[in-house]
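>> Question from a student workshop board

For tomorrow's exercise we were told to take the sequence and the ligand below, predict the bound structure, and bring the output to class. My setup keeps failing. Could a helper post the expected result so I can at least see what it should look like? The ligand is fe (ii) ion.
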Amino acid sequence: MPQQVTFTAMDHATRDDYDLVFAHDAENIATQAGRVVSWLQQMDGDSPYQISRLDHCLQTATRAECDGADEETIVCALLHDIGDVIAPANHSQAAAALLRPYVSDKNHWIVLNHGLFQGYYWMHHYDQERNMRDQLADHPYYQDCVDFCANWDQCSFDPAYQNQPLAHFVPMIERIFARTPGTCL
Ligand SMILES: [Fe+2]
Ligand SMILES: [Fe+2]
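>> Workshop helper replied:
Here is what the output should look like for this input. Compare the format with yours to find the bug.
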């Protein structure tokens, strides 16, 4: 039987209890890459697009790689829609939260805001202001997010596009999640 803490309420816990809890947390963090891969695999199903949500992610990442993006940026392109798995109502925020301890402020900001920026491509069909993203036009990463959407995200729904398979990106995912995560309580 695995070791367990002595307490049933946190206000009775000891340092030894938390040593045990944090050791378990560390193991969980160390195996995160494998879970990320399995979440991506869950996106390989029916979709209203001509390709699966997984293939959309693979296309987006392949385009980033072909354009010479660095590995962290490629992984962010791959995972930008992974929030669809657990938080479809705010998928950009969920993906950004997953990546935040491991990536630059710039890449985090792009993933966090890509949903709003992608609105440029569909909002006008619903009589909404497609340039709503321009409220962030003064932000230093505004143009980077515009470019992410224009060059990699909005165009990656093409069944004829030859993307890399998921296996190609798995070592990259493993390297990014092997980084020492920043603390975000
Ligand atoms: Fe998205
Ligand atoms: Fe997307």
